[in-house]
Sequence to fold (238 residues):
Amino acid sequence: MRSAIADHGSARVVVATGASQFPFLESLTKIRNIAWNQVEAFHLDEYVGIPITHPGSFRKMLLERLVQKTGISKYHLVEGDATDLAATVRELGRKLTAAPIDSIFVGIGENGHIAFNDPPADFETEDPYIVVELDEACRRQQVGEGWFANLSQVPRKAISMSPRQILRAREIIAVVPDKRKAQPVKLCLEDEIRPQAPASILRRHPNVTVYLDQDSASLVNANLRAALERDSEVTLPS
Fold:
């Protein structure tokens, strides 16, 4: 972000706001010497139909965990409870594509999704934001993280940034901790690039960094583990 601000006077970023991203966001907001008043922020996704006051609202998380802590004044919310959803999606996409995105921060879901692009993800659409159907595995993850009391309360649809739009960012940083993410990480790094493993599309981008912890890296195969250890100077668990 500092480099983008130095190069062209501002930084345009997209932020992931799921529970796995909370430690990262906490650290990010404590970094000194970032001109947050020159940062423009978007976020990846939002449920259709829930208000910003709902504990699981990603708009709420963006405001509480990034905007209010940094003083960012230029930010764009994905309004999943808008009356005219199609018009809202188009307008948000217009704002997003008005200029290049410098950095995008993503996670990987328990079902391998990026943003809310559940398998099989749409790798072909050029639309910046799309309305998607959430699969049961994704919806159960939201219950497991405590945002909803039971599966029936989890919306079946969401607005999500599309996979191709994610790849248009100049840089992608994926932060993927936790044992629950070990299998999705394995598919992301080792599987063929295909819609059934949505995060695998990240390998099509020339400037991606994936940050893992010991647990999320635990299923990575031996050859890839050796390369990771060589590049990162970190010993992964056997």
User: Anything to note?
Assistant: The chain has a mean pLDDT of 92.
